[in-house]
Amino acid sequence: MSDLFTLPTIVAGIMLISLNAYVLLGGADFGGGVWDLLATGSPARRAAQRELVAHALGPIWEANHVWLVLVVVLLFTAFPPVFSGLAIMLHIPLSLMLIGIVLRGSAFTFRTYGSEHDAAQRRWGRTFAIASVATPVLLGICIGAIASDAVGRSLGALSHPSVARQDFTALFVAPWLTPFTIGAGLLTLALFAFLAAVYLTVEAPDDALREEFRSRALATAVVVFVLAFALLALAPAGAPRMHTGLIASPWAIPFQIATAIAAVAALWALWTRRFRLARIAAAAQVTLILWGWAVAQYPFLVPPPLTIRGAAAPERTLELLLWALALGAAVLFPSLAYLFRIFKGRPEAFERMDERSPAQPNP
Amino acid sequence: MSDLLAARSQMAMSLAFHIIFAVVGIGMPVLMVIAESRWRRTGDGIYLELAKRWAKGTAILFAVGAVSGTVLSFELGLLWPGFMRYAGAIIGMPFSLEGFAFFTEAIFLGVYLYGWDRIRPRAHVAAGVLVAVSGAASAVFVVIANAWMNSPAGFDLVNGQPVNVDPIRAMMTPAAFPQVLHMVLAAYAATGFAVAGIHALLLLRDPRNAFHRRALSVALLVGAPAALVQPISGDVSARYVARWQPTKLAAMEGQFRSERGAPLRIGGIPDEAARETRYAIEIPYGLSLLAFHDPHALVRGLEAFPVGDWPPVALVHFGFQVMVGLGTYMALISLWAIIAAWRRHDLAGDRWLMRAVAIAAPMGFICIEAGWTVTEVGRQPWIIYGVLRTADAVTPMPGLIVPFTIFTLLYCVLGAIVVVLLYKQVVKSPRIREEERGTRTPVGASWGAA
Questions:
Q1: What are the C-alpha distances in Å from A160 to residues A157, A163, A166?
Q2: Is the pLDDT score of A254 beyond 80?
Q3: pLDDT surpasses 50 at B446
Q4: Residue A87 sits at the chain B interface (C-beta within 8 Å)
Q5: Separation between Cα atoms, residue B46 and residue A153, nearest integer Å
Q6: Mean pLDDT over all residues of chain B?
Q7: A90 to each of A57, A216, B287, B412, how far by Cα in Å?
Q8: What is the structure's pLDDT at A161?
Q9: Do the beta carbons of residue B228 and residue B338 sit within 8 Å?
Q10: 3-state DSSP: chain A helix, strand, coil percent, rounded to 5?
């Protein structure tokens, strides 16, 4: 752990924080799409649920999405071989994920600003919802594939001269299409849906909606438990290095306990209708799972060939990058705080917005 | 289709698609803010209606721009891992700064679109201004990264590998200033003329329409000055290319032989096999004069370089002719409009001017596509000029025609939908005549969807 405070590790840590922000914010936006797809009850209830999702996403989803772009940019600036290696080996799932991102974002916007025809609205709603389900699965598959060593091994195989004759499937499909990676994809989807349901209990304007999303959150919490244990069971075969890291290293047990406490706290808070507390606990739970993965594979970025130190860009680049990040953060955080204060400050705010005509000039 | 060609086609298609939305994301916020400020100052509700409609259009186009931009950031690696492995540490810097500019743009666009009655008027206008400023900043940073590919700097080559990396020097590369200037002006000119052109067309049918008259005035206010000074920035760019990328200049001009006092060729068809450009109108000494500001300057032709280093000559030459031709037209129309406005003529009532502006509606965007063809195809066969060949940077994954086909279809569908949505917006424009204006209350809501 002596090189924990070197430049490459600090930049990798900032990258992880950005990914964390993407998961907590952008992830919940995808989760919102899941609940649009799974809206239940009478047509009026379904419409109310969908409207709550749309209201929650509207002003913030584009800003939340930029966290992913930041992760990508940091990755190719600070760890160029990792970015190019992953882009080669995960070409197919990443491309599919991009199609999902494109369809989710544009369908949501077309539905918000497009024609008022019901048929068109339903078509965009459907596209938005399906893309919101597919994209997190693909993101989880990519993360699972990195954790499982298979991507790293294929990357190593690619540099051998005999590779031209190797099977396409063995190189470009098999590493990311295993029971473990699919489990990771499904867990990601469940976590995003869980986050969204919990956040929406806080943002719901009335009790009916709050209760609907409370039961969704509770049900999803159970699904998360089941999938997490299934993934843990698949890990010895699917991701042995990861599995060893998760059970054998000295920090592993406290980490697991913390995750379990957060998960139980989220459940308890939901059960007793302490929704703001549930939001904090759910975010903590997802954060700990993400950091558990990262810490379990430290110091590797893409195990086994690429480590944080080995794949890092020259020192001068990392130094300047840190300055750029400091400068960017000085602009970003006040702006983000402003955005969330306006739109997420008071749950009752958007009711008032609906009552008033938006065209009134301000006094 | 070879994998290399498929990768190049996918990249070209993705860039050609994204650039339209990126440009609108730079230009539209300016129009929107001007309209809102005029409403705040004058209380004229038509300007509020304009600001709202333009904000709505910006929201649609920005969303598509944001997702297609995300695709591009991944495609840099998905298609060109060899390039990113080489260049990531050198030019990641402007991309990181662009990331923050994009963040600011997304945040304040959210504030602007959804904050009409949640924040104070001044804060709302300020949010719009921040969208416009960060949109322009995004363009500056991304174009700097592209400029580095044209004039790589900020590293030393040792055994084919970059060492002594200096990202600041890489950002100050010679191509940066001319390219950034040219692109930002192009964005304002293209957006301004596209909007002005649409409203000019509608004014030809309904010349007294107060809504279209105001839209035209704001759009021309942004588009005309930019289009007017663009030829000067074009001259700065051309002199940069002449000095730093002689093969690109030779391809742009269809110049095969090296000569002093080289002529400027207008039109013509370059024939790579015969090594000559036929049917061009030649203006004696024109090229030497324009490229080096000296009628007897030596212009190196393509023959001075190995054939393996030539870009596709005909495509680059053709793209350049289109850009310069249409750009010149836009500059002349701008001059006409500015002089007419100076003399306090009624622009909207001048049918010939309105016809000329209406024709120019798509021209800015055609110029941008043509100009980027010159920049990108003209750099071939290099992905980093003189340093790394495009063929050496492409991904080893075979079957690249599949993603190329899928993304092309996806973008065709998206493009068609955006066109339909925007068309519906325009068709719904209010029919409020200049004479009736005083009799209505100046509130935008009163003429919603006419």
A1: 6, 6, 10
A2: yes
A3: no
A4: yes
A5: 63
A6: 90
A7: 29, 33, 48, 25
A8: 59
A9: yes
A10: 80, 0, 15
Q: How far is CA A100 from the centre of its chain?
A: 14
Q: Report the b/e string of A158-168 with b at 16+ CB within 10 A.
A: beeeeeeeeee
Q: Is A340 on the interface with B (CB under 8 A)?
A: no
Q: What is the DSSP string of A258-278?
A: HHHHHHHHHHHHHHTT-HHHH
Quickly count: other Cβ atoms within 10 Å of residue A257's Cβ.
Answer: 11
Cα separation of B143 and B179, whole Å?
Answer: 7
Q: What is the DSSP string of A127-156?
A: HHHHHHHHHHHHHHHHHHHHHTSHHHHHHH
| Whole-number Å distance between alpha carbons of B205 and A48 | 44
The half-sphere exposure of A308 on its side-chain side, counting CA atoms within 13 A, is 23
A357 CB within 8 Å of a chain B CB: yes
Nearest Cβ partner of B78 from A79, A95, A324? A95
The label of the residue with tokens 């944001």 reads B66
- Using CA atoms, how far residue A15 sits from A2, A3, A206, B33, in Å, is 20, 17, 38, 35
Inspect the interface and report whether the beta carbons of B85 and A69 lie closer than 8 Å. no
First-last CA distance in chain A: 60
| Ranges of H-type helices in B115-165 | 121-150
Quote the pTM value.
Answer: 0.90
Beta-sheet strands, E only, within B249-296? 259-260, 264-266, 269-271, 276-278, 281-283
The first and second tokens of residue B440, run together, are: 């209505």
Of A77, A98, A172, the CB nearest to B71: A98
List CB contacts (< 8 A) between A114 and chain B.
60, 421
The answer to whether residues B241 and B200 touch, using CB atoms and an 8 Å cutoff, is no
SS3 A175: coil
Our separate counts of H helices and E strands in chain A read 16, 2
Contact A125, A111 (CB under 8 A): yes
Task: Read off the DSSP letter of residue B272.
Answer: T
**A95 vs B: CB within 8 A:** yes
Number of other residues whose CB lies within 10 A of the CB of residue B349: 12
Contact A314, B89 (CB under 8 A): yes
Q: Which of A99, A114, A172 is opposite residue B421, by nearest beta carbon?
A: A114
On whether the CB atoms of residues A7 and A79 are closer than 8 A, the answer is no
Token pair belonging to A315: 């020192």
Please identify among residues 114-173 of chain A the ones whose CB lies closer than 8 Å to any CB of chain B.
114-115, 158, 163, 168, 172
Tokens representing A158 are 């690619």
pLDDT tens by residue, B54-112: 998 888 888 899 999 999 999 999 999 999 999 999 999 999 999 899 889 988 998 99
Per-residue pLDDT reduced to its tens digit, B379-425: 999 999 999 999 999 998 899 999 999 999 999 999 998 888 888 87
In angstroms, the CA A120 to CA A113 distance is: 11
- Partners of B260 in the β-ladder: B298
- Percent of chain A exceeding pLDDT 90 equals 50
Q: Report which secondary-structure segment, H or E, holds A100.
A: helix A91-113
> Residue A362 carries which DSSP code?
P
Cβ contact B360:B198 at 8 Å: no
* Partner-chain contact A109 B397, CB within 8 Å: no
- Between CA B185 and CA B388 the distance in angstroms is 30
